[in-house]
Amino acid sequence: MMIYLLCLILFCIGLYGVLRKRNIVKIIVGLGIIEYSMNLFFVLLGYRTHGRSPIEARTENVLNMVDPLPQAVVLTSIVISLAVTALVISIAIRIYEYYGTFDITKIKRLKG
């Protein structure tokens, strides 16, 4: 139960970075922390203590088996988050080229 609480704390740190920071780069880092905390949470949902992988259990009956579905979902999520992060970074670079700053409050005032 403690490790789920640590995932929640990690998620809250990322959420704080997204909601309270004014620098676009810090917001992107906060989004990355949120994504990784959710991936960790999904992997922990399928984890079993002293569990075995389903591949090893072809012939024998194993009661304590690790669920492979959350791991597959996390692999898909990693690929999608990589694409989203690349897109957000490219948008941040364009904003910096256009406005010359990463600060959101200055960008809102410039009206360009």
UniProtKB/TrEMBL annotation:
Membrane topology qualifier: Multi-pass membrane protein
Transmembrane intervals: 27-47, 68-93
Subcellular localization(s) per the UniProt record: Cell membrane
Keywords noted in UniProt: Cell membrane, Membrane, Transmembrane, Transmembrane helix
Cellular component per GO, a single term: plasma membrane
Superkingdom to which the source organism belongs: Bacteria
Family statement drawn from the similarity comment of this UniProt entry: Belongs to the CPA3 antiporters (TC 2.A.63) subunit C family.
Protein name as annotated: Cation:proton antiporter
Species, as recorded: Candidatus Taenaricola geysiri
